[in-house]
Sequence to fold (242 residues):
Amino acid sequence: NEQEYHFKVLSILLDRLGFPFGKELVHFSYGMVELPNGKMKSREGTVVDADDLMAQMIADAKEISKDKVNTLPDITEDEANEIARMVGLGALKYFILKVDPRKNMLFNPEESIDFNGNTGPFIQYTYARIRSILRKAEDLHYDHVNLPKATFELSGKEQEIISSVANFAAVVKLAGKDYSPSVIANYCYELTKEYNQFYHEFSVLKEEDEAKRQFRLVLSANVAKVIRLGMGLLGIEMPERM
Fold:
C-alpha cells in the first residue's frame, strides 16, 4: 500500500497519453507484512526470502506431523512429504490471505501452522476428516450421494450448515467485487467451524436412523466439496488424509 500514490499517478498519465485502459487500471494494494521481530526492511538486511520461508514452513509441518504418524500407519515417505508440503504452504498462504488485503498484518509462522483456530491446517484437517468418513461410508456401502426419500426434521445446526453452503456463490461474487480473498478465506473457516460443531454434537456413520445417516453423509460430502473449492480459489491444496 506504500505504492498507492505512484499507481494513481500512473493511471492518470496513461489516460492522458491516450491509452484506453488508463482509467480502468486497478492496483491491487496490500498492507505491509511484518514479522514478530519487526518490519522487514531491505536496507537493513532483514528481508525474508520467500523460498526460504516456504521451505521452513514445509519443514515445520513435517516436524509436527511426526506426532501423528500412528494415525496413518500405512503412509509412505513420499505421501508424508506431499502432505507436509500442502500443510506448510497452506498455512503460509491462508494466514496471509485471511487478513483484509488493505490492512497491515503480523505473520507469525508458529501461529499459522496451528491445527486449532483460524488457520489453514485446521481447515485442511477437517476436510481430511470428512474424506475419511466418506471412504468408510463407501466401504460400508452407505449412500453419500443421493438425498434420502424419507423425511425427518432437521436440527438447527444442520439448517445453519445448509444455509452456509448455499451462500458460497454469493461469497465468491463478493470477494471478486471487492478484490478481497479474505472474504473466501474466512467463509471457509466459519463453515469448517460449523461442521466441527455439528460433528461433535451428532453421529454420522453411527447414526442408526438410515435416512438421517444418509442425509448427514450427503451434507458432509457437500461441505467438503465447498471447502475444497473455496480453498482452491486461494491456491491452497487439500490433502485427502492427514
